[in-house]
Amino acid sequence: PTRSAAPAAVQADAAPASPSVNAYKSYYSEHAEPFLATCKKIGGDVGNIGDLAKRGFDFICIAVSAASQCKKPDDAKLREFIEPLSKVVQEADAGQDNRSKYYNHQAAFAEAAQAFLWIVAHSTPQGHVQTQLEASMFYLNKILTQFPDDDHKNFVKQIKTSLSEMKSYIKAHHTTGLEWNAKGKDLKDFKQSGAPAAPQCPPPPPAGCPPPPPPPAQPVVHSDEPPQLSGMAAVFAEINQGSNITKSLNKVTADMKSKNRPAEDRSGLVTTTEKKGT
Q: At 197, which CATH number?
């Protein structure tokens, strides 16, 4: 299959991609693309899941590219920057339809899609992804019971693998959150280079082209204060006032997880509020 073309924002920058960007491109080709292909093959409402998933995976590609080149921006610029990801997660949540024969696929993806928010998870992005993996398992197991054929088995396997490998990627490159370049340019300059609203992730560079050294790590400030949302997390919370999406950034207790809620208590729209209430 033909690889996706590089987004204009990446093409416009002559500097070689950082190790974190190259690693994400490899992750994308190895784990995102097979899942997208499976969604397309199943089609129907699952095909729509693939369209949403692609937007999420592509935005993460742009986010890690921007972070490798740019200083952490102020809240106003962050608000504009992360809006596409906010829409993906909201649409995944709102798109659940209990009349669809693929409702369990929709519900599983609605849980899994919140893993994209690791870029705004404060200090524990790996834990956030793990929480969403666990939350999706109830529905993934129901898919295996309802659809025992290979395509649906692949759907389940690929969601689980993509989230597990996402944790591995985060551990290697963004242990305490999205790593911005303290000596980089302004985010507006990255965006002005032509990043489209729904970018595509470029393929990894050819072998034999060594990447530049990673940007210097920013110092970690330890405090006795309890952790609070800041930066991108705070901006994301502001964008989604009145919704339940950012509540997933906090620790999810056992009674809040989808797998522990009685099936008869679930409606077509599954939200964190419903989880807490059961």
A: 1.25.40.330
Res 234: pLDDT: 57
Predicted local confidence at residue 81, as pLDDT: 87
Q: How many CB atoms lie within 10 A of CB 152?
A: 20
- On whether residue 3 sits in a domain, the answer given is no
Angle at 81 (CA atoms; ends 79, 82), nearest 5 degrees: 75
Structural domains in the chain (count)? 1
Task: Report the run of H or E that residue 50 belongs to, with start and end.
Answer: helix 44-69
Residues 6+ apart with CB under 8 A from 39: 46, 47, 49, 50, 51, 53, 155
For residue 219, being part of any structural domain is answered with no
Q: How is residue 92 written in tokens? A: 């995944």
Domain of 145 in residue numbering reads as 16-203+227-258
pLDDT at 255: 52
pLDDT of residue 123: 81
Identify whether the C-beta of residue 13 lies closer than 8 Å to the C-beta of residue 72: no
Q: Give the pTM.
A: 0.70
Interval 120-131: pLDDT, tens: 887 899 999 999
| 233 within a domain of the structure (yes/no) | yes
